[in-house]
Amino acid sequence: MLVLGAGGREHALVWALARSPSVDRVWAAPGNPGMAADAELLPIPAGDLEAVADAAARLEIDLTVVGPEAPLAAGIADLFATRGLRLFGPTAAAAELEASKVFAKQFCLRHGIPTADAAVVGDADAVRRAAARFSFPVVLKADGLAAGKGVLIVHTPAELEAAVVELFEARRFGAAADRVLVEECLIGTEVSFMAISDGRAVEPIATSHDYKRLGDGDAGPNTGGMGSHSPSFALTPELRESILADVIRPTIEGMAAEGRSYRGILYAGLMLTDAGPRLLEFNCRLGDPETQSVLRRLDGDLASALAAAADGRLEPGSVSWDERVGVCVVMAAEGYPGDPRLGDEITGIADAEALPGVVVFHAGTRLDGDRLVSAGGRVLSVTTAAASLSDAVELAYRAAGRIHFAGAHRRLDIGVDTLEGMGWQ
Ligand code: AMP
Ligand code: GLY
Questions:
Q1: Which residues contact 159 (CB under 8 A, 6 or more apart)?
Q2: Domain 117-184, CATH number (from 3.40.190.10, 3.40.50.300, 3.90.1300.10, 3.30.1490.20)
Q3: Fewer CB near the terminus (10 Å): N or C of the chain?
Q4: How far is the CA of 151 from the centre of ligand 1 (A)?
Q5: Class of 189-321 per CATH?
Q6: Is 257 helix (H, G, I), strand (E, B) or coil?
Q7: For 208-249, where are the E strands, in sequence order?
Q8: What number is the average pLDDT over the span 213-239?
Q9: Which CATH number is 2-91 given?
Q10: CATH annotation of 325-419
Q11: Distance from the alpha carbon of residue 286 to the mean position of ligand 2, in angstroms
Q12: What was the pLDDT predicted at 73?
């Protein structure tokens, strides 16, 4: 197996695949130092798709699994197909569900998939006119990929004007904001729902909840995600069925009908509103940091399920999830999600992992001689699996408390809102 990527999600994938009974050896490109225990690292830049395909051919890799969205949007699945190499992940045409928010919105309208009401606009005046249709807060979204930062929620006319400047004058998102969605702001509980598909069959992945804001109590800017727990608890079996029936299956069927057969992970970010689940976004890959808590609960052979999906012969029921609760607490660098401070020495990971049930996935780390130092905004994913959410949360914070680097930031309330909802004091 070859895992493409270098973050916490990819470390969790390497960890889970290395534990799949059908797998002998795992490689990672470019990987990170934490993966070295389970995988051989290939020094290939993640963006060099030809070099990845060359390595997969040379090493006779059975299956390449792609972590991040950028290589998928750039057509790595198409390249591997033309070279007769097996890869799990959607083609560029299928990955448009994530790579173009305008495509995704219009796709939802064509197929009756419930989503926030929105207008597609291309200049500042059109944004103002469209925003007048909704009441504040209003959501503005750059069409293209923006590393999770292309969504602006504006609460006042002044914030709207500032956003217009960012999108169309400062061009903070470049061509990704040539088209913009102006969207109603949905209120409710946000959940992540992921499924494996081979273009026809759908295998749901354990549910999860992602904490997107930087600060406790959901304060501060949006981030890639500061923590997660699995299951989500907000998703009752009924809601799960309705998301499968109203969002996931119609998407897989609609993509097949439009000649964009979707083989890969389909990730739906949803708001559970009073009127039912509404789609916020699609991603064409696993969520980060959802994957880190979800995969701690994996039971069974993930590698063979992904290989079957890549071949178009996914068998429903081929992966299962144990009853434990998984928690992930992200340790981020000072400055994240803006310019993170890098190069600080990280200590205490072994002490954290000495606690039974703790696995620390690396996200933004590198070796400087024999010192492990921070090398990205999100530095580590501290994960636990335990019998209850309260046990898993408590253990995750005990473990995180043993890890040190200068300027480390973590939320202190991962799982707390869910525990309060359960009546925990
Ligand atoms: P996205 O990049 O589309 O996932 O959006 C980032 C985050 O913005 C989401 O996870 C939500 O928290 C929030 N968001 C996006 N769209 C909406 C919406 N229509 N209403 C409320 N919040 C939204
Ligand atoms: N955690 C959200 C994402 O992976 O997009």
A1: none
A2: 3.30.1490.20
A3: C
A4: 7
A5: alpha beta
A6: helix
A7: 209-210, 213-215, 219-222, 227-230
A8: 93
A9: 3.40.50.20
A10: 3.90.600.10
A11: 8
A12: 97
C-alpha 318/C-alpha 172 separation (Å) is: 43
Under a CB-based contact definition with an 8 Å cutoff, are residues 384 and 397 in contact?
A: no
Q: How far is CA 204 from CA 157, 244, 262, 273, 300, in A?
A: 41, 8, 15, 21, 14
Q: Is 146 in the pocket of ligand 1 (CB under 6 A)?
A: no
326 by Cβ neighbours in 10 Å (0-12 / 13-18 / 19+) ranks as: buried
**Mean pLDDT along residues 376-382:** 98
pTM of the model: 0.95
- CA nearest ligand 2 atom 2, residue: 287
| pLDDT of res. 424 | 67
Domain 189-321 and domain 325-419, same fold? Reply is no
Q: Where are the domains of the chain?
A: 2-91, 117-184, 189-321, 325-419
The residues facing 118 across adjacent strands are: 183
Question: Cα of 161 to ligand 1 centre, how many Å?
Answer: 19
210, 280, 283: residue to mutate for ligand 1 pocket, most atoms within 8 A of CB: 280
